[in-house]
Structure formats: C-alpha cells, structure tokens
Amino acid sequence: MATATTPVGQDQPTKTASPPVVFDLSQPPVIEGFTPLPRAREENFKDKFIRKTKENPFVPIGCLGTAGALIYGLSAFRRGKTRQSQLLMRARIFAQGFTVVAIIVGVAATALKPKQ
C-alpha cells in the first residue's frame, strides 16, 4: 500500500482563522470616492396612489369605467337583458382599450420628460 507523503522541506500552509466579516445592512457600503444620495422619505400607498393619479389621471378613470361596465353588464345578464348585457360588455372592451392606451401614453410621456 502506498501512503501519501509530502516532499521534504515543503510545509503545508497553515490556515489562520480570520474574524467573520459583519455587514451592516442599515448603512450603505463605504466606497472610496463615492457619496450615496440621501434616501427619500418612505411613501405609503395613499401618497403613491395620489401622486400617480396626478401624473396620469386617465388610468384610474379607465379602470373605474371598466369595472363599472363589467358590474353593470353582469347584473343585466343576470336579469336576463341579453341585449343590454352585450352592449355593456362591448363598453367594457372599449374602456379596457382606453385604459391600455392611457398607460402607454403615460409611460411614453414619463420616458420623454427631461430629467431634473
């Protein structure tokens, strides 16, 4: 049987135990020559909704129109008014298209707006 031996004069490197690196996630990392921007205040759902509605008011209008046509159309279908139900489902499709166009126009306007 062959045994593994180390050549004479060559010592195996010794492992030194280094202390574990502790990361503080509450602070940004320290990078030489870089100063991070201060964090903006936290924005809750209500503030964000109001800001987004002011930026593009047609999206919530389209969403409300879609929901209204859907609910009214389903209630007409339940009452047996098939003609009115079909017209309201077509109105829902129109309102959905309006909403999608409003989203696309809003994204394009935001992309073309100059940076401040």
TrEMBL record:
GO terms for cellular component: mitochondrial membrane. Pfam families: HIG_1_N. GO terms for biological process: mitochondrial respirasome assembly. It comes from the Eukaryota. The keyword Cell division does not apply. Signal peptide: none annotated. InterPro entries: Hypoxia_induced_domain, RCF1. Residues 1-17 have a biased composition (Polar residues). The chain crosses the membrane at residues 58-77, 89-112. It is found in: Mitochondrion membrane. Residues 30-116 form the HIG1 domain. Keywords: Membrane, Transmembrane, Transmembrane helix. The keyword Membrane applies. Residues 1-22 are annotated as: Disordered. PANTHER family: HIG1 DOMAIN FAMILY MEMBER 2A, HYPOXIA-INDUCBILE GENE 1 HIG1 -RELATED. This is HIG1 domain family member 2A. It comes from Anabarilius grahami.
